[in-house]
Design brief:
By secondary structure, the protein is α/β, with parallel strands linked by helices. It contains 29 helices and 38 strands. The strands form seven sheets. Strands 31-32-33-34-35-36-38-37 form an eight-stranded mixed sheet, with helices on both faces. A seven-stranded mixed sheet has the order 9-8-11-10-12-13-14, sandwiched between helices. Strands 15, 16, 17, 18, 19 and 20 form a six-stranded parallel sheet that branches.
Length: 894
């Protein structure tokens, strides 16, 4: 169970090929496959079977293979796959073009029945250069390297491999998925995340069908190594059938961008950028910000690079005044150092070295780009390679990302080779180099988003969730989907979002009475479930100052709306106080439901011209304060929220709380489909919802499972406090990303025997990648419960300090069949015999049962009698493990 479940597919020890006659393969795909397999010596065992040749079952029983590769005509695929099941292959790959959906479904059924992991059909196969295995029709075997490539397009896979061959890019794995694969994108990402030969992952994506599964695998992969995604199909934003502004302006591609950010991955626009980003990220550059310094010997290229820095939202990193003064005596007299570091065309290798040393110490610089333009210096040797050698030496001590752009071609070819051999990403144009640093900065920012695992409900006052559900049920019972303004505001008020007081009037006299009670000035708005945008039909009137104006406005508005929309159902006109917030900014908060990512929260500038302004930023729920702050910062309207044109800064905490409350609504109310809070007026005193429109729809029950969300919230409801045998207590709760240091210390403190029992290894601590994967989980396909105790210790000054530490961990991860899971357990040596192991196991069993899993399995060393005794007492069945006599296979029916 220590091997990945896709090991038989991607690291097979033995392969059997079912492709017709070995000496004369039948289909063109089979002929290409045979050529690819024989072009190099595969490290394992390779055999061929002709399915047309008669043989006995005894003959088949002698065939031992992990992987069956099937390259036959479509009408023979099902029989060949059944043959692979008969000889107990753990994986199969089908190479056949234009397989009909019905046949593809039948192949999946056979594979599932026989426990075969099936890759294809309609793909080009895969390559594993380190194994000298080219099981593909995508062209010659790629060079070995650190990049894992997974693509949903066979044609693009072949093109990328051809491009990579010309540019010296190597791969650990190349996978062409095809359509309707049994082994899908999420499973391949999961394998690459755990593959030690893969340092970074590049993905070409055309679409996904299971958002939760995809996000789970992508987040796990991005937590372990850089992931760069190229997605096709950028569609124009907007949906003409939308019932709200949000639905009209938020496009599916915007949502995909938001999903990638939250998953910690980086998106690029071309496959050249794909490998530029992968090359930089594979260098393990980790900047702490977006400030890029430019060191150049030519003003023009430097200005081009500086312009592009501004264009893509980065910042120009600069030296401090003291550094400028110090550096000026070490560079040519015509050098300009105030913003970009232009050393002038007289600069030599020593001048570049001095500038790099200054940039390394500069607090306002997060990364360095050196742009070199070839200069002709009579009676002097060329400087391009000498300066490149300086960069190679400086990189070891720089401590910041270092990128290079050597412009020109023939005169700088040797210098580019020097840079490449030093592992310095280098580019032909300043824009490409700046864009590559932008990918590094995006990766860093997205990793911060990845670390956020907020709970569904914040620490704010508890909302009236049940009342909100009753309101929605009442609307749906009337066979309506659009809430009135009053209903929408009531729903918001149930989650403690401040709204203007709103009362519905059905006649002019009612309107005058209500306005007099509320106090002037008032606003009048048409109330109709059929009218999305009230201003378009003259359905809004503001600053009405007296009773006669209310009467006249009511009558005129009803006439105008009935004339403009005679078919619309009109409930009446709502009366509400005008907001008295001075110098308030109008913003909007929206909700859209995307297919397949589910609900998405949008934020931007509000008002009547919302579509025209097209200011929107998006985030997947759930939100916490950090995510809310980042969401606000990404919108252009954020520039107006500070002190702006004489107005004081807005109350940012109030705005963030509204976003958190909306996030709570989205998590707890899966019936929500679209929502507009527009305008939300925010000023120095707080925030107030002036208008709102909400669209709902029926949804299956079980909201507490949060099936409608692409990212599962932190399951804070599972936190429990339990007494320990012998005194004291511990808190058992799901693991959190912030637990990484505590978990590492827990592993270090285990005795060598306990570490071996848990990891079957003599390692003293968890490697960084494994530590990230153990603490940053999505709580959907896996769960880790930690037992945490509080202890008092004396610090160096003799004062008592309370600390927390992990003393036990129970974990399960769902198997590929999604009906069973594998578990593990470890307890600190000093806490054994206190009932902690039993408590953790009972909790993890209950959690797996809630998830609908049917069986829990695990491997326990035969030399671990305490663990065997514990699980027997819990009701596990213990059997011998056929693959290794040192282990016992233990199972429990949930």
């Amino acid at each position: 169970m220590d091997k990945h479940f896709l090991a038989p597919l991607f690291t097979p020890q033995a392969i059997v090929v079912l492709g017709g006659k070995p000496d004369a393969p039948g289909t063109p795909m089979a002929q290409t496959l045979a050529t690819s397999l024989r072009a190099q010596r595969y490290n394992g065992t390779l055999s061929f079977i002709d399915t047309h040749t008669s043989g006995t079952l005894a003959d088949l029983a002698q065939v031992k293979a992990d992987l069956a590769i099937i390259a036959l005509p479509a009408n023979e695929l099902a029989a060949a796959l059944e043959l692979a099941g008969r000889i107990n292959c753990g994986a199969a790959m089908v190479l056949c073009e234009a397989v009909a959906p019905r046949l593809a479904t039948e192949l999946q059924r056979i594979a599932k029945r026989d426990n075969i992991h099936l890759l294809g059909p309609n793909g080009l196969g895969f390559q594993r250069p380190s194994l000298q295995l080219n099981a593909s029709a995508a062209g010659p075997l790629a060079a070995a390297g650190p990049i894992g490539l997974v693509s949903q397009s066979g044609a693009l896979t072949a093109s990328i491999l051809d491009w990579a061959h010309q540019h010296g890019v190597g791969f650990s794995t190349v996978v062409s998925l095809g359509q309707q694969p049994s082994v899908d994108m999420a499973q391949v990402l999961d394998f690459l995340a755990s593959d030690p030969q893969t340092q970074s992952i590049v993905v070409y994506l055309e679409g996904i069908s299971h958002a939760r599964r995809f996000m789970s695998a992508l987040r796990a992969a991005a937590s372990a190594k850089p992931v760069v995604v190229l997605k096709a199909g950028r569609r124009s934003a907007g949906n003409r059938a939308a019932l709200t502004h949000s639905g009209a302006i938020v496009g599916s591609d915007d949502v995909f961008d938001a999903a990638l950010r939250r998953a910690g991955a980086v998106r690029v626009d071309s496959f050249v950028q794909l490998f530029s980003a992968a090359k930089c990220l594979a260098s393990r550059y980790r900047p702490v910000g977006p400030r890029l310094a430019l060191i150049t010997n030519g003003g023009g290229p430097g200005v081009l690079a500086a312009d592009w820095i501004t264009e893509i939202g980065l910042q120009l990193g600069c030296l401090t005044p003291a550094q400028i003064t110090e550096l000026r005596s070490h560079v040519p007299p015509h050098a300009a150092l105030d913003d970009l570091i232009d050393l002038s065309e007289d600069a030599n290798a020593s001048h570049f070295e001095q500038a790099l040393q200054a940039a390394a110490q500069a607090p306002n610089i997060d990364g360095v780009l050196v742009v070199y333009s070839p200069k002709y210096h009579p009676n002097q040797p060329p400087r391009a390679n000498a300066i490149a050698e300086v960069l190679g030496t400086a990189q070891r001590s720089l401590g910041k990302p270092l990128l290079a752009c050597w412009m020109g071609e023939a005169s700088v070819a040797e210098a580019r080779r020097t840079l490449s051999s030093a592992g310095i990403p280098n580019f032909r144009t300043p824009e490409a180099a700046v864009g590559a640093f932008g990918n590094i900065a995006s990766f860093y920012q997205n990793q911060l988003l990845l670390q956020q695992t907020p709970p569904p409900l914040s620490s704010l006052a508890k909302p009236d969730v049940e009342g909100a559900r009753l309101l929605i049920d009442g609307v749906l019972a009337e066979r309506r989907k659009v809430l009135t303004e009053m209903e929408s505001k009531a729903l918001l008020a149930a989650f403690h979002i401040p709204v203007t007081r709103t009362i519905l009037a059905r006649s002019a006299n009612e309107a005058m009475l209500i306005a007099s009670q509320l106090g002037y000035p008032v606003a009048l708005k048409i109330d109709s479930p059929d009218i999305s945008h009230k201003s378009d039909v003259q359905g809004v009137a503001l600053n009405i100052l007296n009773a006669s104006a209310v009467r006249d406005t009511f009558t005129e508005m009803m006439q105008n709306v009935r004339h403009a929309r005679p078919e619309a159902q009109i409930n009446g006109i709502t009366i509400q106080n005008m907001s008295n917030q001075q110098r308030g900014r109008e913003v909007y908060i929206g909700l859209v439901t995307d297919d397949p990512f589910g609900p998405v929260i949008a934020f931007g500038a509000g008002g009547t011209m919302i579509e025209l302004m097209n200011d929107r930023a998006m985030e997947l729920p759930p939100l916490n304060q950090y995510l809310a702050q980042r969401l606000i910062a990404r919108a252009r309207v954020a520039e107006t929220l500070g002190e702006w044109r004489g107005a004081p800064a807005v109350h940012m905490d109030a705005l963030e709380q509204v976003l958190l409350r909306v996030s709570e609504m989205v998590c707890e109310l899966p019936q929500l489909r679209e929502m507009d809070i527009n305008p939300l007026i925010v000023d120095a005193s707080g925030a107030l919802v002036v208008d709102a429109r909400i669209v709902v729809d029926d949804t299956p029950p079980s909201a507490r499972n949060y099936h409608h969300l692409a990212i599962l919230p932190y399951p804070s409801q599972h936190e429990q406090v339990w007494p320990l045998r012998g005194g004291g207590e511990c808190t058992v709760r799901p693991v959190h990303p912030n637990d990484a240091s505590m978990l590492q210390q827990f592993v270090r403190d285990l005795s060598p025997e306990s570490r071996y029992f848990r990891f079957v290894s003599s390692m003293h601590e968890l490697p960084p990648g494994l530590l990230a994967r153990f603490t940053l989980i999505d709580y959907d396909r896996e769960m880790a419960l930690v037992a945490v105790v509080r202890e008092q210790q004396t610090d160096a000054e003799g004062a008592l300090v309370e600390t927390t530490r992990i003393v036990g961990v129970a974990r399960y991860i769902t198997n590929p069949d999604r009906t069973s899971c594998e578990f593990s357990l470890a307890v600190a040596d000093g806490h054994s015999g206190r009932g902690l192991g039993t408590r953790l196991m009972l909790s993890i069993i209950e959690f797996a049962r809630e998830k609908g899993l049917q069986e829990m399995v695990g491997l326990v060393l035969t030399q671990n009698p305490n663990m065997l005794k514990l699980i027997k007492n819990l009701g596990f069945t213990v059997k011998a493990y056929a693959d290794d006599p040192d282990f016992k296979l233990v199972t429990y029916t949930l």
